[in-house]
Amino acid sequence: MNGAAMFKMTLSMAIFGSIGFFTGKTGIPAVELVFVRCICATLFLGLCWFISGQHKAETWKKREVIQTLICGIFLVLNWVFLFKAFEEMSITVAISIYNLAPIFVLILGSLFLKEKMTIISLLAIIICFLGSIFIIGIENFNSLTDFMGSGFVWALLSALCYAMTMLLGKGINELSAYAMTFLQTMIGIALLFPFMNFAEFYGLNGSNWLYILGTGLIHTGFVYYLFFDSLRKLSTVVISALVFVDPVVAILLDTLILDFRPSTLQSIGILFIFGGIIYTLIKQQTNPKMEV
């Protein structure tokens, strides 16, 4: 077991778990925050890419570049929707729903990649669906207005876009992780620029800018560097386990610092969701076609 790689992966997941806390302190909306994040990631990871010399060894294939750019669109939308969910609901609830992505991979894989859906897989999906209802609160399903204002739709869209990112990322074998992310964040800058409201940056204080730059440089640039540097040195089983460091840190920060207290139904919903996700991840280890 590569101890250094495990430490880097664990650290990257722990840092990313605090992104919801940072997001609430930036003082700017989701689109503007993701735009800054894309700029910081492009500069930071682009620099790492060139310093490492990996850019000289890249094999550029038109199909992979196009696939990477489409993947980048879903990655950026995933960030925007997740940050919008943070604006409407607690970090714990948003992160729990966001981590439904592997379940969406299972569903989409069954629909479009003709991967077999077993009875147990269907049961896992139903359990996660019930967990989602419990965690968002049954009362929010009484009217369309309450439902749309709950943030549930944004969190669900972020999970769906993350699942699309994982599925589209399959089959990209020639481009390095640095090249992929550089292209994806570049497309993010181009995609979000027309929607930017630069007036949102006026009147921000030093603390706001500290959290904004922290989200861009630390949660995007540094975290992705640690993630990519360790990714190919660890087994899929270890990676799948360490991914849970992210939601655990997010939920701990939400409950210990932001004083979020889930209701009994929400607690049951969280257990349902992560129970279904754990089963899905275990299934991916036994079925190579499901690996993402």
Walk me through the topology.
Blueprint: H1 3-16, H2 19-26, H3 30-52, H4 62-88, H5 91-98, H6 101-112, H7 119-136, H8 144-149, H9 152-169, H10 177-192, H11 206-231, H12 236-242, H13 245-256, H14 264-286
Can you put this structure into words, describing what you see?
The structure is a single chain. The protein is an all-alpha fold and 292 residues long. Helix content is 75%, strand content 0%. It is built from 14 helices and no strands. α1 (3-16) packs across α13, α4 (62-88) packs across α10 (177-192) and α6 crosses α9 (152-169). The longest helix is centred in the first third of the chain and has 27 residues, at 62-88. The two termini are 21 Å apart.
List keywords for this structure.
292 residues, mainly alpha, globular
Q: What is the typical, i.e. mean, pLDDT?
A: 82
Helix content range: over 70%
User: Major sheet: size, sense and barrel closure?
Assistant: none
Structural class computed from helices and strand pairing: mainly alpha
In percent terms, what proportion of residues is strand? under 5%
What is the molecular shape? Answer: globular
Q: Span from first to last CA?
A: 21 Å
- Listing every helix as H and every strand as E from the N terminus to the C terminus, the arrangement reads HHHHHHHHHHHHHH
Which regions contain 5 or more consecutive residues with pLDDT less than 50? 288-292
Number of helices: 14
| Secondary structure tally: strands | 0
Task: Please state the CA-atom Rg, rounded to the nearest Å.
Answer: 19 Å
